[in-house]
Amino acid sequence: MALRAPARVVFPDALDQRVLKAAQYLHQQGLATPILVANPFELRQFALSHGVAMDGLQVIDPHGNLAMREEFAHRWLARAGEKTPPDALEKLTDPLMFAAAMVSAGKADVCIAGNLSSTANVLRAGLR
Known about the structure:
Elements: E1 7-11, H1 17-29, E2 32-37, H2 40-49, E3 58-60, H3 66-80, H4 88-91, H5 95-104, E4 110-111, H6 119-127
Parallel strand pairs: 1-2, 1-4, 2-3
């Protein structure tokens, strides 16, 4: 089943050698479509310094993608109403919050985090 419809897996803790290697493996084997959430220049430099190829990996920069952050903030407002933080657009620059919003919006199927982010922050992002 995985080879017919690979899941879109978003990785907010992308600046980790283990994540890059796992994402590259998933992509090469056709098991999933990895999406790395990070500044593309920082990530490319990190990958080069660790000898990990980035060929075929999708990278989304939450800071540089205002349209997606606006869409996610609008969805957050529709779902949470008054409980939506006034700085929702700013909070969505955090890779973890952005990745959780991608899953909530159906732009990714699953989020894998916790290798750099604390358990509390992962849970907090998932609950919002």
